[in-house]
Amino acid sequence: MNCQSRWRTILSNRFVLVPGVIAAVVLVWNIYVAMHNHGVVVGRVVDVNGNPVADATVALWIFNFTTYEEKEHVTTDARGDFRFSNNPSYKLQISAEKPGVGRSDRVPVFLYFRSQDVDLSSPLRLGGN
Amino acid sequence: MTAIESPMPRSVGRILRPRTRQTLLLWCFLAPSLVIFLLYRVIPVIWNLVLSFQYWSPLKAAEFAGWDHYEDLWFDDVFWQALWNTLIVIASAPIGIALALGLALLVNADIRGRNVYRTIIFLSYPLMTVAVAIIWRWMFDERVGLINYAARTFDLVDKPIPFLNSFTWALPSVIVANIWQMLGFYMIILLAGLQNVPRELHEAAAIDGAGALHRFTRITLPLIRPSLFLAFVIGMLNAITSFDLVYVMTGGGPGRATEILVTYIYKLGFVQTKFDSAAAVTIVFFVLLISIAWAANRFTGGNAGAVETE
Amino acid sequence: MMGRYPRWPIHFALIGAGIVMLVPFYWVLKTSVSGENIYAYPPSIVPRHIHPFFYIDVWYSIPFARYFLNSVAVSIIAVVCNVAFNAMAGYALTHGFRGKNAVMLLFLSCMMVPFQATIIPAYLITGKLGLLDSWLGLALPQCSTIICIFVFKSSFDAVPRSLIDAARIDGLPEWRIIWHIMLPLSRSAIATNVILAFIWSWNNFLWPLIMTRSADMQTLPLGLARFLSYQEDTTGALYAFCIMVLAPGLVLFLMAQKEFIQGLTSGATKG
Asked: Is position B67 within any domain?
């Protein structure tokens, strides 16, 4: 009984509590990161009217020191969806183009950690500019 | 260290043994600290002195140089500039202490939330000086610094002042940053002194009709003299050694406008690898330090040792 | 007597002082989460688009974890050694013994030797010890501090003499007297020492600047200075880095500030 209350005072001491909470948050965050860092980037390409565009070329640019360089291309499927499966970076840009339809802006994407799995909420819009 | 493990012998017949044993134990307790101070305080001072009379570099055998390095310093403009700047920085310490004394009087008053005020004012002391330097670099920035922004908003200046790039403003800017960081520390030291001033003295003087200013100069000031001295010594040591601030904020520039002795020692020793000249500058630096401490000691009543040794 | 004067001028002055102390914090925090007003004039006072991406930038663009590890390791060595050595030395100084005056004199004169005045021989000595570019070498000069020895001494002096004598009659060995009687009664001295030692070693810049050679051994202040030199003032990441370095010291200080200020105010004058 005495022993138990002693442990309680030790554990509720702020010099134990604060670092403990910080350590717990770091641990949870790391577990979350480990479960979500497959480098999958998913999005959709649409035209000016909002219709999905198939067979558009989507480029992934990753940040390298001071500039963005092109890492890889994929093409969209029939529903206008694209998927990169091994994005290595945390700071990227994505652009799409299709001959005849136009090209999109380079959309910057900031991730919370390297290779975070991300589903782009707003589609890339071709011919917008 | 086995003496620590074994319990004290309790036989009455051997009176002398526990005595010597205890002395031995106390020296063992002192040993680690003594070794560290010997290695990093005592030997360096002596070594510096020796080095300053030698021609020496890491790859060369030592050779007696006499006063050559000191003679070189005499004709070295940068050295004189650095010395002058150091003196200015030291002279700024009392400004910070005066400000801190005002704050200490305020937070010593019987008001609600004074602990919060104390914490807030002290908050800048534990900050990393390099970060403080970066913060203030930016506060002083010519285009987007907050200080120039405020000055322009209130129409104090027509065009922004490039604080850290101007020969007149660079050193004062560094001093302001230094005072900002040290203010809380001075305040705490002075507060400690103020708390030792018996309240009855003030009350008695107030009954006798002494005004607030009178009570302050006649009762408070003399009684907190040891704290003032301590604050001054710490302030001087801090000002004279504010390497980090100068190195990060200005790097000694523009030109040599903010070069102080410490940055000059660093540059001589570790940039130009002239260890021997740097040692000579260090000795001058050291003499300056000791003489100012001595003067401060005389000035505040000549019993500074009393602060530390009771 | 203490009730007669109006309080509001004091609050007014202190709030003013508080603002002066806090504004730089706010300014840096604001830029670190928004990146605003790096080029903009007039700067905006309230951040508009808050995002954490400058922090992420810092984390990946330098070996932050490595610097952090170095800083933490050096600080831990310094703090542990400080508390142990200073408590021991402070305890020894509460006794009378032959040579005590010489030791006191040595300590007091060492107090007047700033570390900056010893850098060249300190570097050479550390080189001779073979500790250049190592955690121990980084921590060693700060493993004992004289001010803290005196803080401990004054705290131990305040422990009632009768308590120690009673323990001694019970036959407690010296180290148990320290551990079970002196230290529990000197919590504010310990807090003061822990915080001061941590602050000094965490913030130390000149010594690592001189003695680290490899990029692997750099500590946070060095990393920060280097980051500044190649990023200049142009990015919010610099200020995010500042916040990341300042946070641990501030957290520790705020956790222990009550004991700390107590220990400092009681130790500084009587010490």
From this structure: no
